[in-house]
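Appendix B. One record, verbatim.
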Amino acid sequence: MMLPQHLKQIRVLMLHDKENLEKTLFRLEQGFELQFHLGPSLQGKKIVVHTNYPEEGQAFNRTKFRVLSWNYPTGQEDDSDKFCSLELKTAGSYQYYFGHEGVERLGGGYIVVDPVMRVGADNQVLPLDCITIQTYLSKCLGHFNDWPERLRVAKESGYNMVHFTPLQTLGESRSCYSLADQLTFSPEFSPQGQSCSWEDVGALVEKLRVDWKMLCITDVVYNHTAANSPWIKKHPECGYNLVNSPHLRPAWVLDRAIWHLTTRVADGRYKDKGLPPNITNDSHLNAVRTVLWEDVFPQIKLWEFFLVKVDPAVEQFRVLLQNGSKPDHHKTGGKKEFHIVQDPEFRRYGNTLDMDFALETFVPHSYSPNHIEECCGWLRQRLVEYNGEQHHVVHQHQEQAINCLVGNIVYERLADHGPKLGPVTRKNPLVTRYFTFPFEEMTLDTEMKLLDLPEKMVHFLAHNGWVMGDDPLRNFAEPGSNVYIRRELICWGDSVKLRYGKGPKDCPYLWAHMQKYTEITAKHFHGVRLDNCHSTPLHVAEAMLDAARAVRPNLYVIAELFTGSELIDNVFVNRLGISSLIREAMSAGDSHEEGRLVYRYGGEPVGAFVQPSLRPLMPSIAHAMFLDVTHDNECPIQLRSALDSLPSSAIVSMACCATGSTRGYDELVPHQISVVKEERFYPKWNPSAAASSTGEVGFQTGVIAGKLALNKLHQELATQGFMQVYVDQVDADIVAVTRHCPSTHQSVVTVSKTAFWNPQHHHYDINSPPMYIPGQIEEIILEARTVERHAGSYEKDEKYINGMPEYTVEIKEHISLEQSSVVKHSGVTSKGRSEFVQEIQFQKFTPGSTIAFRINLDSKAQKLVGVLRYYLSQFSPKYKKGSVPDDNTPAALQKPLAQLMSKLTLADMNTLLFCCESEEVENGGGGYGIPGWESLKYAGLQGLISVLADIRPKNDLGHPVCSNLREGDWLIDYVSNRLINREGPLAQVGQWLAAMFEYLKHMPRYLIPCYFDSIIVCTYTAALDATFKLMSGFIQNGSTFARHLALGSIQMCAVGRFSALPPISAKLADIPYRISPVTGQKEQCCVSMAAGLPHFSAGIFRCWGRDTFISLRGLMLLTGRHIEARNIILAFAGTLRHGLIPNLLGEGRCARFNCRDAVWWWLQCIQDYTNHVPDGHEILRCPVARMYPTDDSEPLKPGEVEQPLHDVIQEALMRHLQGISFRERNAGSKIDMRMKDEGFNVSVKVDPATGFVMGGNRFNCGTWMDKMGESDRARNNGMPASPRDGSAVEIVGLSKSTVRWVLELHSKGLFPYDGAKVHRDGKEVFISYSQWNQQLQQSFEAAFWVSGHADDPNEKRPDLVHKKEIYKDSCGASSPWCDYQLRPNFAIAMVVAPEMFTVERAWKALEIAEKKLLGPLGMKTLDPDDMVYCGIYDNALDNDNYNLARGFNYHQGPEWVWPVGYFLRAKLYFAKKLGAETHAKTVMLVKNVLSKHFTHIERSPWKGLPELTNENGQYCPFSCETQAWSLATVLEVLYDL
């Protein structure tokens, strides 16, 4: 069944170049969708994703990969949003990898899909966290007919899964894990006269599943077989023998020698050397060492297996020299090296010298007999050295072998915790043998002769075992490992290690045998435990589990891993698809550690945030099966105390994962039940069994009654969604564990008093500290104490595995506080209106006790939470559970939020979503600062959303914002009140929030962060939906990236308390008005655009002509804000003076006309408006309210002088042709405290020879690169860093674009002028725009192209050329060197006036700019090869460096973001001209560059792109965090794409 999209769980995995995640675990559930998205490093590349997850209806084949197809949600090929996906419907482990043309694998990893298990006649799902498992040693179950009565103990104790150790025929050691025949059900289970089969087992397993709702799993043992397995005798190739593994021959020789030492010690033949059969002290151990060094090693001469016979090797070499033989250079590669070839048969002195390398390395001076002899002498010396080195290596092996051997003897014979084997005998040898020896005893010398008889050697098989601290991914029996010769193996003498090789071809019988074994197991059992998993070759386990899942797709797989590394654990979990890893409570040394394990192995924190259904795929830890004891653990009663059984079980059962135990624990069996030696039977179930009964158990036995209650509770918590966990260490012995349900907010708190130390030897404090439990205690689910009773003392029974009768559990279930024997007093303390806390004081809370409380919120809080969830459920159905309809809906909530949002304008959205501190202060408020942390970036919702987006995925409830929310309502009130204080629709949204927050305030404080987040996210999402509905189709249907950039329009465009724009003509339609909050009069409230946040957002420094018009096309025209764009164009038009548009607007009255480029950007914007907006040419007839109709007029009121926009445009063009020259008003420190006097002189004109707009002087900076020096110390004060006087390349391009455009308009009858009259030399001259246009076209490349050719007739200053095939940055600068500097400005001219450029030249220049200037986010503002380049901008640094002090290098290297937009657009334009292949490659480049901007904007708390970065994309603290033109020009690139 397909889930509706809003309920479907979707996880997003971001792919990154060279990111291999084989050691990262990603767990997913069936029914989830997994989406692969491209990270920034892969965008712009043709990435192909492969997976072996099969197509629907196909069988899984691990080696068969398929290519996933890309989905394009916006319908456009946008790399930021495209994804490929998998619908996950089948359990198992699956691999993915990705690459592109030429590189198949750039990265990859695994996903593990959990199985779905079902129980009962109705096949209800048993979630993994519900599992409670009990392990049975199968051989202790007795006859098959008796199994139901023995297994019933698990059912009646509340378990829902049984783990059987292997049910196959066991080997002669009787170890549960040493199997003689993997394929037969052990005959020992069949009563006399019957023959039980696997089918009988399968029928029982199915009966337990249906009738008892219990699943069954069993072990699979792949690593070894019993040494007496009949099939291994027939197929010795299945083990490591001396024929297929000759590298083990030296180890076998040592093993036999140690066996013969055993026989001699056992026979007392070493007594006189201080080594008796009964080894009891250190002197005996030293005697062992001495005998080995003096008798054993000299006899067996192990070193001989590793040496070269010197004389024959030298003789062979001598003959080759005498014959004039030459080395094989193909083999040696000319390298002079000494190579010894290891004898593959490992015979004594079998190693040989590689003669080719010898001839290459040992070269005689000549081939005279003397020189040959001399050369042979060198070789002999090196061979003797080599043999000495090998002798030393073997000596080290022998030292380690002795250390390991003695360590074994100490454990087995001397250690208190060891088996104390007693005297050395043939049955209990000195140490366990490493190899089988299936022959009669013979002397060691006779045995050595067997090394020449392959038919005998094939039966000497290596035993299995484990190696302390070994690499689990390495097979210790393969060549290259010295484990056997160094005696580092802790050996299992009853088992033979199996040799699979690399695949079925290497050992066909073994692979077929084990596959059949696996399929039998999978057919009859619901799951498997991988025995000795960390030592099982991974490729073997993979193949076997694939076979198992082919039989049973929802196979449950558990394993115990002892790798010592979570990353290595993940390799096993990933490759094998392990469902749960066994974790041991016995690994905890105290109650504190035991509690920590509960927290570690599952659940989220109490009060965790609600996660969206579509979210990033986060790495996880392996799902845990947390056991109070495993069948391998030592007995907890011996290690801790009998009293600890119940409280530790209670702690374990509160874990939010699978839990379980081993049969015997609940019955208080006071010793380990040995998997090797135990042969007694488990008692059967009898509910009324007597306490002293050994053959039967019931509710009176051990802690069974307590375990039943705990298992029931564990299952209830998992099925009802109590997924949040909190662990509290009350004191040294008491641990409280809370499980909380995030939808109903019910909690269960279990308090357990552990007894890690035996009370007979340890003093426990009888007084327990009081506990404070938030909420109302509904009931005590259970209270249980382990108590002593008089039922006799423990005696080990001969026939049954019996427990201690002297303890039982006193238990009460589902009682009130008043009925409790453990709770002395409970009082209610209330902390404020929303905190209902109960104080609990204990009595008789003795070690071995546990109590579980069910807790609800108090009834008022419960109701209010339900109502809040009801209102939240309009946004997502995940709030439906636990929701309660409101009896009395507040007025503010009667309209859906979407309806309220639909009334907001985009200017309102600026207030709702953004507003940085200075904007908020100007509007009469202020930002919100978190004490001890920092202030939110915005007063609007984005300020919170940016922080919450970091907190939410990690559930970082300790974050200062969460603390602030728990401590008081300040932030909650701030959010709603700042909106209520506005008027109109914004106030309604504020009232809606206030009404929602009213419910929030009455909740327990620990829940406030998560519900506050929910409310804010829902409001924010609704605001975004409403915002994009008001924007253009390009944004509405655009990618996530396009929408992020479009929000820059909301960020930057606002109506402040004070109007930033001068009024426009009242004759215009659609002008917004308001009552001024300052004067109380009606006034225009047009949106103005900030240059950047936070530095250029308010007051006089908010609006800049240049910044506004570089940004206007991207942020207003492309987003569909046409009326607002018109108003801004006309408002600035009204301030035209001297034919210029102001640089700093200053509301028009304080404008500064000190830039040469703003007017051309303004004109370009009008052109863009006419081209982009439907009927956009109408703007040309719009009335402009002139503030300065003449250069010298005082600012006029709106309406006094008005003229159509086309006349204002004509005036700007005419004034440039005439020539502009004036001195700024109020010149001096009043308007600019830095500028030198000459800098206030503004001059601009059109060069009559070229048509280029030119102007400026070396004391002012009239383009965007306008840094004025500020350092007295460095003597740059008042000096522009980059005056760019003369003709700046982008101004030439913009002017060409404008002149071409007005010509087109004129030809269509939309612009009344075809030229302008100017005065030249006292005469009135008419200059046609057609003439100006042609002049620019003809002059541009001649003046600006730097060919680098010495004979270029256009090159006036070849001495200044230092980069060829570029365009100059300017022409006619007062400092001629500056013309030739490589900067990114020429790309602007390419975009606005591409017709001026030759395609091939343009492409070469762009390629050089890409190589030299393109950074991760921005363009270097100066060639890094330039002598004044410096890429780090530090405005605070004041030193003696003229080029650096006080940020003088602002535009001399730092990487500005906005020029990237023009560079990429130019590349796209000219790439198209060069053909499809170049264009396709350029599109890839553009996507790859833009991916970094996408990543930045997603991660930035400002949700913007910065003004600039330092070199190579490093963060610059002096930059605006988000800049209008950065966002706008990048959005323009997306539009061009």
